[in-house]
Specification:
mainly alpha, 90 residues
Length: 90
C-alpha cells in the first residue's frame, strides 16, 4: 500500500489518466472504423471542431464542450469517491 502522504497525488494521477483514456477511446474507435457506417463513431472533440469551424455555430460548439466537460467532471468525482471508499476499507 502506498504511504498516506502520496494518496492525494495517486488519486489525482489516477483520475486524470482515466479521463484521458476515456476521451482518447473515441479517437481510437474513429481511427479503427474510419468513422463507421454513416459516421456513427463520431468523436466528441471532432464534433465540437466541426460545429465551430465548418458550420460556424460557436454557441453549439460551446454547449457541446461544456457538456463534455461536465460528463468528465462527473466521471472524475465518481472515481474519487470510489478511491476514497476503497482507501477506508483497505
Amino acid at each position: 500500500m502506498a504511504p498516506a502522504v502520496l494518496s492525494r497525488t495517486i488519486q489525482f494521477v489516477f483520475v486524470t489518466t482515466m479521463i484521458g483514456m476515456l476521451t482518447s477511446m473515441f479517437g481510437l474507435l474513429f481511427v479503427m472504423t474510419s468513422g463507421g457506417p454513416e459516421a456513427s463513431t463520431y468523436l466528441p472533440e471532432y464534433y465540437i471542431w466541426v460545429q465551430q469551424g465548418q458550420m460556424n455555430q460557436p454557441a453549439l460548439a460551446s454547449a457541446a464542450s461544456t457538456a463534455l466537460f461536465l460528463i468528465m467532471l462527473v466521471v472524475g468525482l465518481a472515481e474519487i469517491a470510489v478511491l476514497r471508499r476503497a482507501g477506508r476499507e483497505g
